[in-house]
Amino acid sequence: MKKPLVFALFISITLASTAQGVLSLQQCREMALQNNRQLKISKMTASIAENIHKSAKTKYLPRITGMAGYEHLTREVSLLNDQQKSKLSNFGTNSVGKVGGQIGESIAGLVQQGLISPEAAQQLGSVLGKMTAPIAQAGDNIGQSIRDAFRSNTKNIYAGSIMLTQPIYMGGAIKAANDIATIGEDVARNDIALKQQTVIYAVDNVYWLAVSLKKKKLLAEKFRDLAKQLSSNVQKMYQEGVATKADGLKVDVSVNTAELKIAEIENGISLAKMALCELCGLSLNGDLQLADEDTDELSAVESVIYNPNDTAFDARPEVRLLQNTIDISRQNTKLIQALYRPHVALTGGYTVSNPNMFNGFQQKFSDVWNIGIVVHVPIWSWGESKYRVRASQAATTIAQMELSDVRNKIQLEVEQYRFRLKTANERLATAHKNMVAAEENLRTADIGFKEGVMTVTDVMIAQTAWMTAKTAIVDAEIAVRTAQVGLKKATGTLN
């Protein structure tokens, strides 16, 4: 419990100290990658995908299940039905009755034939009745004994079992499920790569926006200083009667405009740095200083080497994700097909129960082992498998079409950023040339104004041209860097 707290405290101290120092572009990237919530979610999703894959692998292994139970019955378990019980209880009576009836019919026949008298027949029947009564009772007793022997006397049942099931052939479902889980891990990795590139792209753009605004602020301050210096010179010349009051008012307007421009840029800087702090996970109220904002020359950036004949498709996480979708759809088709194929599984188990079902429901625990094979064969499903397979194949076709569409869009995106980078480099080269002319024009205007051959308006125009040329250089420099970042993202090499 102490280690996580110490680690968290260390991170907090590090971030706090970094926020007060100077941050480079690379440091901003690292902090954003570390603190981005969506990226953290993607990493957790990758962990989930890994565990799902491990779970899918267990489908090849045997399953062992256990069961135990107790049942109390309000009636005992009987091996005989009510009719059988009745016959056994009256076994002697029924048997003797049938025999007695047959003997009675025989005596009556003898009387009809005149072989014996009715009185003799009556006496003989009386004697036979006295003889059969004990026999009937004895038979009833025997039947009752047999009935009692078939009683289970079972109202309490105890049972427990362990069952093992080993899949042998599941129609290819297990392999398809494992392949889907493998692709799921690849999906998670590609999603992380996509979000990493998205975060880096956002950080780079906001970083260079803040840098460009800070440089524009410095230029605006220099322009204001030039305007103030011109205002001071005009005031002196006005006192000497060389300049007019209108000249002074023109310069004052220029100074005020410069001050307003500085205030607007400062607001933009604050908003840009707040956005950068949000991306980096820093406090929005922190004093954020960037490494490139106070330098005359921006830090060098890697050039992007791109061959128009090459494709950036495989390097783009979006493309890999769409390919993952196609692969999953194909495996899903195999999974559906597997559901309608024969399934074979080997089973084995051990069971213990009380009463003993294998020995006349004897009231004691007994056990038994079993082994077998289970075959499941789908026979008729009204064409369900055919329709589901068609639907899955159609989904695969749609994913392939989407991938083709994305490939075309990526190719267009790459060409657009190549053109944007080329244009930005040309703008930068032109801006440097214009800057040389603008500085010389400003120098000439200052000299001419001091010698009285050029007006205040001429100097103000030269100052504005110098400011425009300087701003064009900053814009072109930032445009080159944002175009480079965009081209790297388009080619899937932004990291």
Global outline: rod-shaped
At the fold tier of CATH, the topology name of the largest domain is Outer membrane efflux proteins (OEP)
How would a crystallographer describe the biggest sheet? 4 strands, antiparallel
Cα gyration radius (Å):
50 Å
Distance between the termini: 34 Å
- CATH superfamily grouping of the largest domain: Outer membrane efflux proteins (OEP)
Give the uncertain stretches in residue-range form.
1-20
Please identify the structural class as seen in this structure. Answer: alpha+beta
Quick summary:
The protein contains eleven helices and six strands. The chain is α+β, with helices and mostly antiparallel strands.
Report on the structure:
The protein has helices at 2-20, 25-35, 37-57, 82-89, 91-113, 118-149, 173-239, 245-280, 317-339, 384-450, 456-490, and strands spanning 22-23, 63-72, 156-169, 289-290, 343-354, 366-376. The longest helix is centred in the middle third of the chain and has 67 residues, at 173-239. By secondary structure, the protein is of the alpha+beta class. The protein has three domains: 17-61 and 173-340 and 380-490, Outer membrane efflux proteins (OEP) (Up-down Bundle); 65-77 and 156-169 and 342-377, Outer membrane efflux proteins (OEP) (Single Sheet), CATH 2.20.200; 79-151, no CATH class. It has eleven helices and six strands.
